[in-house]
Design brief:
Blueprint: E1 10-16, H1 20-34, E2 38-40, E3 49-54, H2 59-81, E4 87-92, H3 93-105, E5 111-113, H4 121-129, E6 134-136, H5 141-147, H6 153-158, E7 162-166, E8 168-169, H7 180-183, E9 188-189, H8 192-204, E10 209-213, E11 221-223, E12 229-231, H9 232-239, E13 247-251, H10 260-268, E14 275-277, H11 285-290, H12 297-310, E15 315-322, H13 329-342, E16 346-351, H14 369-393, E17 398-406, E18 412-416, E19 422-426, E20 435-443, E21 448-452
Parallel strand pairs: 1-2, 1-3, 3-4, 4-5, 5-6, 7-10, 10-13, 14-15, 15-16, 19-21
Antiparallel strand pairs: 8-9, 11-12, 17-18, 17-20, 18-19, 20-21
Helix pairs in contact: 9-10, 10-12, 13-14
Bound molecules: 5'-deoxyadenosine and iron/sulfur cluster.
Length: 470
Amino acid sequence: MTGTQIQTKKRVFIKTYGCQMNVYDSDRMADALASDGYEPTDSVESADLVLLNTCHIREKAAEKVYSELGRIRVMKEEAARQGRQVTVGVTGCVAQAEGPEIARRAPVVDLVVGPQSYQHLPKLLREVAEGRRAVETEFAIAEKFEQLPAATRAQTRSRGVTAFLTIQEGCDKFCTFCVVPYTRGAEVSRPAEKIVEEAARMAEAGVREVTLLGQNVNAWHGVGSDGREWGLGELLFRLAEIPGLDRLRYTTSHPRDMDDALIAAHRDLPALMPYLHLPVQSGADRILAAMNRKHKAADYLRLIDRIRDARPDIALSSDFIVGFPGETDADFEATMKLIETVGYAAAYSFKYSPRPGTPAANRDGQVAEALMQERLLRLQKLVLDQQTAFNRSKVGTVMDVLFEKPGKRPGQLMGRSPFLQAVQVDADQSRIGTIGRVSISGLGANSLFGELVEIPGRPVAAPIPTEVAS
Ligand code: 5AD
Ligand code: SF4
């Protein structure tokens, strides 16, 4: 054939369900596919490749995937009538848990890839192009850490001034309700130098805040630049040295892995933001034992005291499950009492959802739906009251806000306080990516309102280091 061939770019649409790690993974998949000629699109109708990056943590999350696949089937058939071929893939934890089942239940799916095999996406897509259906659900986290490309400077920049960075994947804790040890596999830590390199690249591309991710992020360990064994605390100290990286966060943690160095980091590291998500799940010792959490309510409360001694203003959050098999009224009241004792700034709560293959799924004493619903509503009301009280306590204070993006109204920016609250401030777009001193003036439904204040002798537009934070 003669003449110029026009190479049109292929488009990929990725829909992300579930946790922040899936958000991070979706970005990495987009990065891997970019070198294969795919550009991201926000419109599923225009996509040549549709990926659903799925969550299996609760039944509802998994069911959503099948209903979405029903809609995509209609779209794919319509595209085929117009002579356009659309490839459909399922990735994430549903892919891992139900690989062959998805292929059977949803013939629309061409590709099934588990969370530890994304490095093979380009190769698997070539198999699909050759007319085969590709299913890959190997456990290979170390290989994924090694081989999945990091974002380029431009890709990082396009995603804003805050970023996630996975430092650990998998879980060895085997809580009896949880699918994660089966879908994400055994705990593997990413090497320290790779994490530092990626964080430095992010900072260099304009990222001001990094949230370190892991299913059990505080179980991270590795050999540090000094040749010694590091835990998350030591890693945070190293990351805080990276120029431009003003803020660090991490999620999600297990109470049993909060060691002294990590608590010390909360005391001594201004860049480590005063917000900690530390799930306890239940306040009843019987239930904690049945969940295999390996600690008692009193251990958790003592730990909270130590963390608050180190960082008195820390905002705490947790996950709670109501209606775990065997949960009595008294057990539930123990959870309510724990919440009252701790005083949370936020919390996430769920009705127990039996997950196939987990030890608790077939236990006696499954709690009736109506009772779970009643407990959930009571718990959520208590937590919402605490959250509102926490937010109200910040009205009238001055704090550092990292401006992330345009706000709700024109002329406004949305930023985050050190305590992860959304703050709406009248400020110019040029301030995105800077940290400003903000006087908190009011309380909205989902955010705070504030005004920029000047610090004598400091130009208003300059990014203000977090050391200034009180
Ligand atoms: N049922 C209800 N909630 C669950 N979670 C995990 N597994 C289940 C389940 N089977 C919740 C836990 C966990 C959060 C991510 O999801 O609270 O901390
Ligand atoms: Fe699941 Fe428990 Fe591991 Fe968290 S610690 S991922 S709840 S098994």
